UniProtKB/TrEMBL annotation:
Protein origin, superkingdom: Bacteria
Official protein name in the record: DUF1523 family protein
Chain ranges passing through the membrane: 7-25, 151-171
Key words, A-Z: Membrane, Transmembrane, Transmembrane helix
InterPro entries per the UniProt record, alphabetical: Phage_phiNM3_A0EWY4 (IPR011088)
Membrane in keyword set: yes
Record carries keyword Transmembrane helix: yes
Native species: Sulfitobacter noctilucicola
Length: 210
């Protein structure tokens, strides 16, 4: 039972870690921009998945206008991105150029007959049920739908650094446990066993007297 609880606990922790990395690390899609628009948004239960108001604006507003970029990805499916500043908040992309990016996206629009493809860097998820959109970070032209997305050096560096930190903590914790905690637990178990034996011997003497 204890083993099952530990397994469920650590599985949950690692699933949360993977989800955080998958949401916050940058990803790249090859897309054709079909349209751009601006829409008034009233964040509700999904407020966690919306960024703050543009830097310099009133961040306490209950609702605000948000830029969107409509695209069709190289495989043919539709993807809509929001375009919001991240400012000094999380995740730390330090994005302040929302209006400039929207202008670039508007200029990048093309039709299926005269398609122009772009690599759009973004983070986040798309969920239609909860009305969640990934946030666009940058846009650059590419040769075509089969263009390379590039090697995600930043993602590799961050994940490697995280793994190194986790491994270092695990090694130090294991050494601490073996040198301090395990001997203490063994001493406690030995003491309890000795006390239990003494009680049994005392009860045995009473049984003989009876």
């Amino acid at each position: 039972m204890v083993t099952m609880i530990k397994w469920v606990f650590w599985s949950t922790i690692w699933l949360l870690v993977i989800a955080v990395f998958h949401y916050t690390l940058p990803q790249v899609d090859i897309v054709r921009v079909t349209d751009t628009y601006e829409k008034r948004i009233d964040p509700g239960e999904n407020a966690l998945f919306w960024s703050q108001a543009d830097v310099g604006s009133d961040g306490t507003m209950a609702n605000r206008d948000v830029f969107f970029i409509q695209t069709r990805r190289a495989k043919g499916d539709v993807m809509v991105y929001r375009n919001e500043d991240t400012g000094w908040g999380w995740p730390p992309y330090f994005k302040f150029d929302t209006s400039n990016l929207q202008a670039e996206a508007a200029d990048a629009k093309s039709t299926a007959d005269a398609a122009q493809y772009y690599a759009i860097k973004h983070y986040g998820w798309r969920n239609e049920f909860f009305t969640i959109f990934p946030n666009a970070i940058s846009l650059r032209p590419v040769d075509g739908p089969d263009a390379s997305k590039g090697i995600p050096f930043l993602n590799i560096f961050i994940i490697t650094l995280f793994a190194a930190i986790v491994w270092a903590i695990y090694v130090r914790w294991r050494r601490f446990r073996m040198s301090r905690i395990d001997p203490t637990l063994e001493a406690i178990e030995d003491d309890m066993a000795e006390r239990s034996g003494a009680v049994k011997r005392w009860l045995g003497t009473w049984k003989k007297k009876a």
